Structures are given as C-alpha cells and as structure tokens.
Amino acid sequence: MTHTVTSAPTRVGGQAAGPEDVTGSAGEPGSADASPATAGAPDAAAATDSSGAPAGSVTAASATAYDGLPDAVVLTDADGVVLVFNAAAANLMDVDAGSVSGRHVTEVLPLVDERGNDWWEASTAGRRLPRVTGQPERRLTYAGPTRDHDFNVTVRYTRQAGRLVQVALCLRDTASRERIERNRSDLVATVAHELRSPLTSVKGFTATLLAKWERFTDEQKKLMLNTVNTDADRVTRLLTELLDVSRIDAGRIQLRKQIADPKVILTRVLQGKVAAGAAGAERFIVHIDDELPEMWIDPDKIEQVLHNLVDNALRHGAGTVTVVLRGTETGAEVSVADEGDGVPEANAGRVFTKFWRGASRGNGTGLGLYIAKALIEAHGGTIVVGRAPGGGAEFRFALPAGAPVFG
C-alpha cells in the first residue's frame, strides 16, 4: 500500500534539493557497510515472515529487540513510514516512541543537510537505484521544534529482488565525536609546543658547536652539551608521557609488580631532583615513618607517579615542598604539599583530566596528573587533591600493600 504524505517536507533556506551522497553495491568502491548499531539487529526486511507478513514489516518481538541497542535506530518502509523508533532515538528526540509509529519520517525526524535541503527528498534518487545500498556517515541537522541538533547519520537500504523494502537510519550524537576531535587537536598543539623549545635548543647548540668548535673553551663546550642533554631528556619524557596516555586510553597498562620499599623509591626521586638542579635540598621537608610495610607494587610506575607529583609542586607551587610517607592499616600513604595558591575547589574534579594545566597555561603538557591517577588506580589505590596546611595544594595517594599471587 502506498503511503501518502499529508504535509510535504519543508525546505530550509529555499534551496533546491542537491544530489545525494550514495554508496554503491556491496563490493564496489565507496560502498557503506551496515551501521554497527544495525548490523547485529533482527532482520526485519525479509520478503515474508513465518506468518506471511509482507516484506518490510516488523514484528513486535523484533521491534523490541532494537530497544537494546545503544545507538538511535529508526526503520521506515520504502515510502518513509516509521516502523521502528527505538528507545535511544526516542530519548535523543525527546518524543514518545509509541506516538511516532505509522507517521512519516519527515514529520517525526526532519533532517536537513549542510545546504538546508530536506534529507528524505534529496535522497530520492538513491532510494530508486537498485544498486545503491545506503549512505555513508554524514552530518545532518535535526530541525527540532525548539532547537536544532546535529547528528552523525548512517543510512542502509534493504532491498528484495532489487526493490526497496526498508530504510534503516543510525544516529549518533556529534558531541562525543567533537570531544575526541578536540582532544586530538589539543594533543597535537601540546606536542608541537612542548617539542619546539627543546628541539630549537638542540639544533642551535649543535649547529654552533659544529661551526665554531675551536673557538669555545672546554668549559663552554661542556655547558652547551649539558644543555643539549637536558633538552633531549625533556623530549624523551614527553614521548614517554604520550605513550603512557596511549596505553591508558586503550586500557593496556602493564604492571610489573615486585616487593619494593616505598622509602627507597621516594628517596631516589628527591635526590634526583636535587642532583638535576630542579630544586635545592633545603626546599624539601620530608617525613617518613620508621616502620613501613613491604609493598607489592611496580616500583617504576610508583616512581613515575612521585616524579609527576613533585614536579607539579615545584613547577606550580611555591615555598617548601612537604612530602610525607606513612604506613596505614592496609598499606602506605604518600602526600605531596606545596605552599602556592593551591587548586580552587571548583577545579578539583578537573585536575586529573588530560591537558588540564590550571591558570599556568603553556607550562607543562597537562598529562602528568592524568597519568599519575591512572597508575595509582591500576594498583588498586586512590588519589585525591585538597588544601595543604600551608595553603597550597596537597596531593595524597594511598596504596594497598598487596601480595604476590601464586598458582
């Protein structure tokens, strides 16, 4: 039965519908695979079901199955009459799913492209071509009653003997994609900024030494080479942070646990900062309990956490840096506090996110605290930020003692 649209779709912007982006038949270049949300969904487009239902019909059981999909899915027949409007789609559009069944898709889901053309009308040519299987993901705007909203939309055509029987739309909110793209842009900008300074220094000093080696004293040469070495270490640390972030985001943190003494690890970190000239010994106040439990931890990862926390206190804090290591009933606890301005309470929840650098934009990558939190949580511990007694920021993390697992 042919469905007649009582109200023609309204064109936005007064422009004629443009050509449709279509995909060829399966196996041809440019063909679109089924959307992940609809690939494993029930087949509602068979020619007939066991009860002899016509092609393109959807049973109550199969329609209910679509509600379990995380993506918004809308199914229509060849004429655009809505057959399925799953729960995710109803939530996105803020409509009652039961009220849209049997209505035309342009009434309940008015989508327009970047030129303001009505999507359903503009895709007419593709729906008529037997070899067209769908449309690749594209950005379309939902012209809602109160506000417009952008979605990434994938379309799949189901045909029976070359005749269109069903149209499936999968809609995803663009917010998550935009967030990923924004994070990617931040990462590129951060890497470019952080690499430019040390690489410029390395290039400058090495070029100068090569061109005028005989003119410099041994002391001057040593100073330049030490600067090159320090900048090379800075680049190495940045690349290490980027690799760590990649593993964290992929859920591939690997811990090589062993019995370790946290006192030894902490002492090594602080002595390293003094030896590298990052701070004088007088800037550190250290309190360590006499009796500490043996810890089943990855010493390299915990050393990295301590490096990040101490660097953060030295870079962003002021005055002395107080480090406390004490034993607890379940393991050990470490706090690193400075005497700077501290972290505003409103920003406490953002401190451990990627690229957060507070007021000191451009100083550091904004990845150190994000990595520290991930490594502590991988050990089964916790880390928080609060107000230090001296008025600055205090980072405190607790680790369970743990034990080797045999067998």
TrEMBL record:
SMART domains: HATPase_c, HisKA, PAS
Location of the protein in the cell: Cell membrane
Superkingdom of the source species: Bacteria
PROSITE patterns membership: HIS_KIN
Any GO MF annotation of the entry: phosphorelay sensor kinase activity
Catalytic activity from the UniProt record: ATP + protein L-histidine = ADP + protein N-phospho-L-histidine
Transferase is among the record's keywords: yes
EC numbers: 2.7.13.3
A GO CC term attached to the entry: plasma membrane
Primary enzyme class: transferase
Compositional bias segments (type: Low complexity): 29-57
InterPro entries assigned to the protein according to its UniProt record, in alphabetical order: HATPase_C_sf, HATPase_dom, His_kinase_dom, HisK_dim/P_dom, HisK_dim/P_sf, PAS, PAS-like_dom_sf, PAS_4
Domain Histidine kinase, residue spans: 190-403
Gene3D superfamilies the record matches: 1.10.287.130, Histidine kinase-like ATPase, C-terminal domain (3.30.565.10), PAS domain (3.30.450.20)
Keywords: Kinase, Phosphoprotein, Transferase, Two-component regulatory system
Keyword Transmembrane: no
Region (Disordered): 1-57
Coiled coil regions, renumbered to chain: none
Protein name: histidine kinase
Organism: Pseudofrankia inefficax (strain DSM 45817 / CECT 9037 / DDB 130130 / EuI1c) (Frankia inefficax)
